[in-house]
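FORM 7B: Structural annotation worksheet

SECTION A. Query
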Amino acid sequence: QEVMLQGWIYNATPRGKLIFIQLRDGTGLMQCVLKAGVVDDDTFEAVRRAMEQPQPRVALGRALACDRLAN
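SECTION B. Predicted structure
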């Protein structure tokens, strides 16, 4: 299933080809991981550039469920 995620980058930690993000909106926080090569290059670079803004806002086009977290 695909969902659209939108919000402000509350916290982000870049680690090479990974970016760990806490995305905030009016309902709370969502933890996200962007991996270069899994998301398109334009999205990865746009998020990397947005992290430099005082209140970065992003829209992530696709979120995939992680089976490890499913109950």
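SECTION C. Observations
Residues 22 and 31 are 5 Å apart (CA to CA). Confidence is low (pLDDT under 50) at residues 64-71.

SECTION D. Sign-off
Analyst initials: ____
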